[in-house]
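Subject: Protein record for review, amino acid sequence with backbone structure tokens
How to read it: Take the token row as a discrete description of the fold.
Enclosed: The protein record, placed directly beneath this head.
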Amino acid sequence: YREIALKLKSMIDAGELSIVLRDGRMVLQLPSDVIFPSGQADVRPHSQATLKQIANVLKSIPNRAFQVAGHTDNVPIETEKYRSNWELSFARALEVTRLLIADGMNPSSLSAAAYGANDPLASNSDDKGRAKNRRIEITVQPNIDELIWIPGSH
């Protein structure tokens, strides 16, 4: 995990992403407001370079799975394209997943998930909290076989 963090340090210093440990997992957090225009799932051109850098680091880690998850605040959205925050968060996660694959990551190492407003990091009672809740998270999934030995397994 330390090696991953060191490889991403310049992006962390630039405020393009943050890294946290949550529930024993390393999580890369990218603010949605930086990556996407409001209410959309099209990645801004300058954020595509950020995702390419992330892909280059993550694809260098062998035998590891990653989950890309979309998160929103709790302000309801209803557009012709997205009927809910859940749909928007999934469209964003899927778009980031597609770009990571286009940048050379193995599709079998990736999954996409949507949380909508159901996994907030902060209170949705003010703009600052809502901004923190709008994010993409890329979780480095632990390899259970590295952590647990089960009798009879190889």
User: Anything to note?
Assistant: The longest helix spans residues 85-102. The two ends are 25 Å apart (CA to CA). Helices lie at 2-7, 9-13, 32-35, 45-58, 85-102, 127-133, 144-147.
